[in-house]
Specification:
Order of helices and strands: EEHHEEH
Distance between the termini: 13 Å
Structural class: alpha+beta
Radius of gyration: 13 Å
Largest sheet: 4 strands, mixed
Number of helices: 3
Strand content: 5-15%
Amino acid sequence: MIIRIVSEGQWQVPDTEMEHLNRIDSRVEHAIETSSQSELTEALSELVTTVRAIGTPVADDNIVDSDLIVPDVSATIEEVSVWLSENPAGDGLIPG
């Protein structure tokens, strides 16, 4: 799976890691539901750090579509709320 971190680049992440990413994504959703910017920033920071740690960077000259896009850690509740509302499956940032 190819995951893009906004303003950073893309990482190839093994599909076997999706359950782990979904647990972090649940924290993102909770932060949005409770309007907690500090919780959102913490969850996004963990999500971005985890993608970097478990993924392999995709070379900048390798043009591939992203399967998922993860907001930058500085994203606001309002920005992430829009992203979540545009997801027709209602799965959060990470499907599943």
